[in-house]
Amino acid sequence: MKIYQGSRLVWSEVKAASNFWRRMVGLLATKQLDPQAGLLIWPCKQVHGFHMKYAIDVLFLSRQGEVLGIHTLEPGHISSSYNKAHYALEVNAGQARLFGIQPGDVLAIEF
Question: Residue 50 is part of which domain span?
Fold first, then answer.
């Protein structure tokens, strides 16, 4: 999958986690993410970083792709819960700020 902010391609190597097993495992088996990689989890309103080896940014999105919240998740912590979220996009820590993504922005998901 690919994630766009307007016409700009932000992440080009996003994997899907839409079934129970993939949502449960998430990024736990990884040591790091490539800069263009991410994991899109759905349905998802909250994530945890238990057993994670590195920090990540989690962007909580509505069904329409609106960024509802951004949480930098450190290993061993739990994110805030976003009741209106449908997707959680997990990417490298600091990337949301690097790309200037803020709550209220709309991201397009190319499946």
Answer: 2-110
